[in-house]
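Task card 7
Instruction: Convert sequence to structure tokens.
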Amino acid sequence: MNTLKMLALPLLITLLHCPVCLSVTVSSSKPKVEVHEHTDAVLSCEFKTEKDQNPRIEWKKKGKAVTFVYFNNKFTGPYAERAKIEGATLTIHSVTQKDSGEYRCEVTAGEDHVNLGEASVTLNVLVPPHVPSCEVPSSVFVGSGLELHCKDKLSVPPAIYRWYKDNRALTATADTPYSVDTSKGTLKFKSVSKTDTGMYRCESSNSVGAPKSCVAQQLKVIDYPLNMTVLIAGAAAFLTLVIFCCICACCCRRRGCCKDEKKTKSGKSFNPPPPPPPIRNFKHYKQTHSFMI
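Output:
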């Protein structure tokens, strides 16, 4: 027993004087923070040092590049007018979606053996729904496929969408001629009919704020001005006639060329014979030739 006491006493003295124990410790009581847009965000950071009573405190934000939030006892950039620090806890006033991200609290105690400690805090700024953009054509032909689009790119968390026709919510079932994707905001028709004519609008919603809706837009389902089969058949007949005429014209030209080539090869020529040479010495010509007067 006495031997154990004798061994424990030096061990206790060694631990008390161990340089590893003389280090700064940094932590956060709330490593994940969610706040609504335009409210204050409190990013907690607590630290403890063994020797250094005036450590250096820095806050950084991680993104594509690490940027300083609090450095050299003052705030930088856009945080200069809307942030404060108490101890090592950072408060950002009137946060927006741009403030979302991962922040790092760093405490440097130069007198401690391990003189650097850090803690991370993730900030997520919640944004209520905004008025979505809705794509509804003014008219479409009977029997055509149709897809309506709705999008709210600003809401956090992402919005859930609902379509309305004449102020009545559209719920897709196995019997309905349409399908609805509530996460993508699409309303699809395989084949529209006259009964699908109406006023369409889309509504976006999430858990943060009240739903928002776009202005209702008129969709008309109309008949084709003429029977499409007749139009297609007429167009095909006209195209066939044009092609036939072109072929006939080409054949006629080629036959004319061939005839001219055959006559040239046989030696026959349709060109008149060259005129006789002019008579230069008429007297001599009269002596050698007789004329009948």
